[in-house]
Amino acid sequence: VEGEMKEVSEEEMVAAIAFGHEAIKAQVQLQKDLAEAVGRTPEAQPREYPKYAENDALKTLIHEGIYQGAYEVARTGNTSKAGRKEGFSGVKKAFLDKLVAEQPELDMKMFSRYYSSAEKKAIRDMMVKERVRLDGRQLTEIRPIWSEINYLPGAHGSAIFTRGETQSLTTATLGTKLDEQIIDQPLQSGYSRFMLHYNFPGFSTGEVKPNRGAGRREIGHGNLAARSLKQVLPPDEENPYTIRIVSDILESNGSSSMATVCAGSLALMDAGVKLRSAVAGIAMGLVQDKETGEYAVLSDILGDEDHLGDMDFKVTGTEKGICACQMDIKIQGLSNEILTAALHQAREGRLHILGEMAKTIAAPAPELKAHTPRSHKMLIDKEYIGAVIGPGGKVIQQIQKDTGATVIIEEKDEKGHVSIYAANQDAMQGAIDRIRAIAAQPEVGETYKGKVRSIQPYGAFVEIMPGKDGLLHISEVTHERIASLEGVLEVGQEIDVKLVDIDKKTGKYRLSRKVLLDKPA
């Protein structure tokens, strides 16, 4: 099972899977018909593969010798992975020393295989019978959670999320449209404004190895986290940024991809991205007794529980519903009962995690960080796009050079969509003013703060927009009749004026100041 959803309920999820299962039955029947058509009948013997040499007596001896000891170590509830490993190693060494003394010619490969099988059964039996976990937790219990935002002050947004012995340090970077990722796939092409990269260095599991390119595991985990978070991102109209999330796993003992979802949600809110809701993820596990059918569904599984169990079911979502899922199982199939139980148990765990995350940050930051690029969107008439760009891009390049802002223009829906990005508000405003000077048109009835450019006997010329002057006739300056503007206005003075008319033939602007002044009593 793998997919993404728009915050659906557990009931809708189960119904969708059941619907898909019915469709699969027809496909399975088609496969059976094909097998029969080529002479492959159900009675045909499956292909044989070379098997390990078996020693039933040794297998029984090892099982009886270490089962109870491994069972007791599993039941101690040691919260440390290293501590549990030491406990199991002690049981193994004590029994092996005794066995080697009795059987000097012992086949060590066979011993290791039988020991691992016996240890696995002891641990699984303990969880099903005792209803407790390797680290002492109850079946539905979540490991302790700690998180912090703004962990890396230089980033646009950052968060560190720790759950038990799994930790993700995640950053959020906000870029411009020029930073969009090019998508060029066999069945899809275009651009992506949201990227998530998941890094899993060897030291996160105590290994010493070189960090090479991302493998299939890293890509798969990153895709799962990206599918989860993209469901709550604001629409493009409200979010002008290209977003990149990077999750670095600093330590791992299960559910590192789910830690990435949680840390990514926190980092985005720290960056000021207006998420519709916080997103959390949880990995569910399963241990089922093949003989009795008795089972235990585990919330927030450890790495050992993933390795020894029958299922790894990752579920992400908000308070409202599920956003994405991914399931790996080692058994033939799941009953509807187990699937439903796992989803509802996952919801309880997810809500608990969201509650813990809300203690760190409950809503997106109201303001962007001081060092985050500022953005502004504006519309201009289609006929002014060429004027803003200029011949060979000369005008727009000059605007960017003078202000330090990045200006991007696209034509959509018979309009020019202008996106402006700048390091600070002054650069942003400078670019806005330059573009408005070229493309904006004064509107009759609007009030403008203008600057007196020149004074004539019949009135004053006032600049109401960069490069756009209008005539303020002497009769429109005050309600009182005046013979001269001397002492009333001066060049360079800023005054409020209203655009009362635009000459249809000449395009000249007629201004009035007195309509904004109170009439004398």
Detailed description of the structure:
The protein has a 5-stranded antiparallel beta sheet with strand order 1-12-11-9-10, with helices on both faces. The longest helix has 28 residues, at 10-37. By secondary structure, it is an alpha+beta fold. The radius of gyration is 35 Å and the shape is elongated. The protein has helices at residues 10-37, 56-75, 81-102, 108-130, 216-229, 256-271, 303-308, 336-360, 385-389, 394-403, 425-439, and strands at 2-8, 145-149, 157-163, 166-175, 181-185, 188-192, 194-199, 242-251, 280-288, 295-299, 311-317, 322-329, 374-381, 406-412, 415-422, 447-456, 459-465, 468-473, 494-502, 509-512. The protein has 4 domains: 54-131, Arc Repressor Mutant, subunit A, CATH 1.10.10; 139-206 and 213-360, 2-Layer Sandwich (Ribosomal Protein S5, domain 2); 374-439, K Homology domain, type 1 (Ribosomal Protein S8, Chain: A, domain 1, 2-Layer Sandwich), CATH 3.30.1370.10; 447-516, Nucleic acid-binding proteins (OB fold (Dihydrolipoamide Acetyltransferase, E2P)). α1 crosses α8 and α2 (56-75) packs antiparallel against α3. The chain has 11 helices and 20 strands.
